Fold:
Amino acid sequence: MLNNILVHSGLFRYFILFIFLSFSLLTALAGADVTTGICSDCHTVHNSQGGDQNDPVAFKLNDSYSGFETNMTPNAMLLVSDCVGCHTSTGTSTIVSNAPIVFNTGALSNPLAGGNFTSVRTNDVLGHNVTGIVSQDGSLGLTPPGGTAMSSQLTCAGEYGCHGDRSSGKTNFTGMSKAHHTDDNGGITGASVGLSYRFLNGVLGKEDSDWEQDNTNTSHNEYNGSSSSETDTISYLCAQCHGNLHTWEGGALEVGTASPWLRHPTDIELKSSGEYANYTSYSMIAPVARPDPDTVPATAQVVPGTDIVMCLSCHRAHASPYYKMLRWDIKSSTLATALSGCNVCHTSKN
Ligand code: HEC
Ligand code: HEC
Ligand code: HEC
Ligand code: HEC
Ligand code: HEC
Structure:
């Protein structure tokens, strides 16, 4: 279970000790806040130990993804690994040493809210093809459907990524500068990358402390949505690349303004009448966004007329086991399963 890079690197020198003290050390690390954690858990100043520069501290995922290997090439910001390295595990757990794991190289239990990149390794159609995890998408190439071709494969962050500052020329690390070291106990304001929902620059929301690992509607992320042309919503994040699929990008005509819609609307309120009025218990299969994630009256409930359809009502952000990163198996030959997510809102279409 303790198979991610943080364990292999920061605690590597104390490996024997670790065996004996695994419980207390694990507890210590799990309680660590990045802003106050032991620097050497994540950074290496010289990438050398025991006087031997051929014995580096930095680690990376090996080519066969079966484990980690030492890395002579230094990482940005003297880090022990890169984004994929720290957020990957060869074990089954999805939170390791307090780091959210979004790529389990083998089997896993309890994927986190964003979904797990392991699926896209088996089939391009199941997720975003991110550099360092899988090569570019064989059929879509570098073109996000609904948007224009990018000049590079997707990265975690920066100009060609979803996290961090996406402005021109930004890379994984320059785009994420200072994010991990920002104290966000004062709330998510969108004022900087570190103060944005899950380091998605400018996006608002409320962060569930276990990244929805427990998958229960009494404690979950609260996503921001807006039925006017706001740019701080989770759906607008997607629209930065998939513009035409979003209600408010490039003119409402891309989606329509009312029935008959051209494409399924996003960032619009659920009607308080008709079949939508019956969606009142928050569903982890087809969740809704809120107009103000910080002041949700009852987290396990949905308020038709107020709450909002979003891209993540139907999709996972990273990847999922289902066609087009959907949250349920829309291709199932059992109609009830195929429609199981749609039915959450379209309550009369069972
Ligand atoms: C749990 C992992 C972790 C720990 C512990 C940690 N850091 Fe970092 N640090 C990071 C990551 C990841 C980045 C790069 C991305 C970012 O800035 O969010 C970073 C970036 C930095 C940067 C560059 C910031 C910039 O943008 O210029 C400095 C300086 C830094 N860390 C110093 C420290 C110091 C000093 C400590 C100990 C008090 C420490 N770090 C502990 C993970 C960590
Ligand atoms: C040295 C290890 C390390 C590296 C490198 C690293 N991270 Fe992290 N990251 C962590 C840890 C540990 C946490 C958990 C921090 C916490 O919740 O206190 C984290 C948290 C996160 C989160 C969740 C933030 C939240 O609000 O819950 C995101 C998103 C993220 N990292 C993205 C990235 C990206 C993108 C990169 C590359 C630019 C990166 N990380 C590089 C260790 C790392
Ligand atoms: C930085 C640009 C970017 C952002 C932001 C972005 N995407 Fe994508 N997306 C792409 C690209 C490029 C592709 C096509 C290549 C691929 O699948 O990797 C794609 C493909 C997809 C696909 C089809 C997957 C497939 O392989 O057939 C879906 C579904 C999708 N994105 C949903 C989303 C959702 C939902 C969000 C917001 C949470 C989002 N995207 C945000 C760039 C982006
Ligand atoms: C009501 C559910 C639902 C919502 C909301 C939704 N999608 Fe989809 N999306 C689907 C389904 C179902 C597919 C599968 C293909 C199809 O039926 O068009 C799909 C396919 C896609 C594709 C792949 C298209 C292609 O040509 O391969 C992308 C990209 C995508 N969605 C992005 C988004 C983005 C971005 C948003 C928010 C602006 C969004 N979706 C909102 C259900 C949804
Ligand atoms: C999170 C809630 C939600 C989910 C999940 C959802 N829808 Fe919708 N859907 C809506 C809303 C809201 C509208 C817009 C109704 C209106 O205001 O006209 C809509 C509109 C539609 C329409 C157009 C209806 C009309 O009157 O023009 C169709 C068709 C549709 N959805 C199909 C689907 C399918 C198929 C799925 C599953 C892949 C799905 N929806 C999932 C909320 C949802």
About this structure: The radius of gyration is 21 Å.
